[in-house]
Specification:
elongated; 5-stranded antiparallel β-sheet; single chain; 16% helix; 6-stranded antiparallel β-sheet
């Protein structure tokens, strides 16, 4: 009996967990539905808590170096404390709201190179090794995000890669501790002016802040530099405008304003977060709603647009780097362990 207790403390013969998602595909502002399936081990187990959370790979700058870490950025309890009998089988349903700012991982069924996302289930077991499970999640763009991505493709921009940078963009209301950068090589008609463009969406229930960072090409007597533009759009305008024309206008305006921004302290080469702010120009402007940004359980316009395909609500926010979020081949298969 003592030997069995010792084995149980090391996780041998303890309970097992397997989380099953009804659909691993979602969008910002919707929800992930699933069930946590537990099977008791050789001995009774005191379960302290069961929780689910979204985890992803984030780039972190430290001094002159940069490394990748795994961050759990959104967490929700599924169950409180209870006793799990030997061989007992339990299936606990849950619905995890997906934050509006959750980064996009998939477009047209294809994973964006550099992006990873998983749902982590943690079963805290008293006096024993905690159990966990990890399931792949695909986050698809909202209609407005999809139209803007389509516009870049129509204009001839070639996708380079995507990643998440830890930090906050000054002047933009963020609830998550990181932001996504979607990188493009310049289209031919812009190649004389810029080398690359980085696109960032900061999404709320009310609309989307679109931040452009253009790597402006240097001339014979001038060095290259980065210039920035911030534009605010509404969820309701997904199908109301010619987005290729709008994005082209954004790019022309952003790359033409460097001289004025330099005088105001904008557009410094080291990048925008967190030191630099942005002017807010864009089409359309949507600021006068009288509501704060963040996550809400009301559907709102964004929720209605997204919910037409996939279903429901907003959420809450956590944010911590975790060391034990991966099991088995997850890190290797999804690139969480790569530098």
């Amino acid at each position: 009996m003592v030997f069995k207790k010792m084995l149980s403390a090391f996780g041998v013969g303890g309970p097992t967990v397997d989380t099953v998602l009804a659909n691993p595909n979602t969008r910002p502002g919707l929800a992930l539905d699933g069930r946590v399936n537990l099977v008791g081990g050789e001995a009774p187990a005191a379960i302290e808590q069961i929780a689910v959370g979204l985890v992803t790979r984030v780039e972190i700058e430290s001094g002159d170096s940069e490394y990748a870490g795994i961050m759990e950025f959104h967490r929700m309890p599924v169950s409180g404390a209870f006793e799990l009998a030997p061989k007992q089988q339990l299936s606990i349903p849950f619905q995890l709201p997906v934050p509006w700012e959750t980064p996009i991982t998939d477009v047209y069924g294809q994973r964006l190179h550099g992006m990873t996302m998983g749902l982590r289930t943690e079963v805290a077991v008293a006096r024993a090794v905690d159990k966990s499970d990890l399931d792949q999640v695909a986050v698809h763009p909202l209609p407005v995000q999809e139209r803007i991505l389509e516009a870049f493709a129509r204009l001839g921009f070639r996708f380079k890669g995507a990643d998440l940078e830890r930090g906050h963009i000054r002047g933009v209301h963020q609830t998550l501790p990181f932001y996504q950068e979607i990188e493009y090589f310049a289209a031919p008609q812009y190649a004389q002016v810029i080398n690359e463009v980085e696109l960032t969406f900061v999404t709320s229930q009310q609309g989307i802040d679109v931040i452009l960072e253009c790597d402006k090409r240097g001339g014979f007597l001038s060095a290259g530099h980065d210039v920035f533009g911030r534009y605010t759009v509404s969820h309701a305008d997904a199908d109301r405008v010619d987005w290729a024309q709008v994005v082209d206008g954004w790019l022309q305006e952003t790359t033409s304003r460097y001289g004025g921004l330099r005088a105001q302290g904008f557009g410094a080469p080291q990048g925008y977060p967190p030191q630099h702010g942005y002017p807010t120009h864009g089409y359309p402007m949507q600021h006068g709603h009288g509501h704060g940004h963040g996550h809400s359980r009301g559907p709102g316009m964004g929720g209605i647009v997204a919910g037409a395909a996939l279903g429901a609500v907003g959420g809450m926010v956590a944010g911590e780097m975790i060391e034990d979020a991966v099991e088995g081949d997850f890190a290797e298969d999804w690139g969480f362990g790569e530098e």
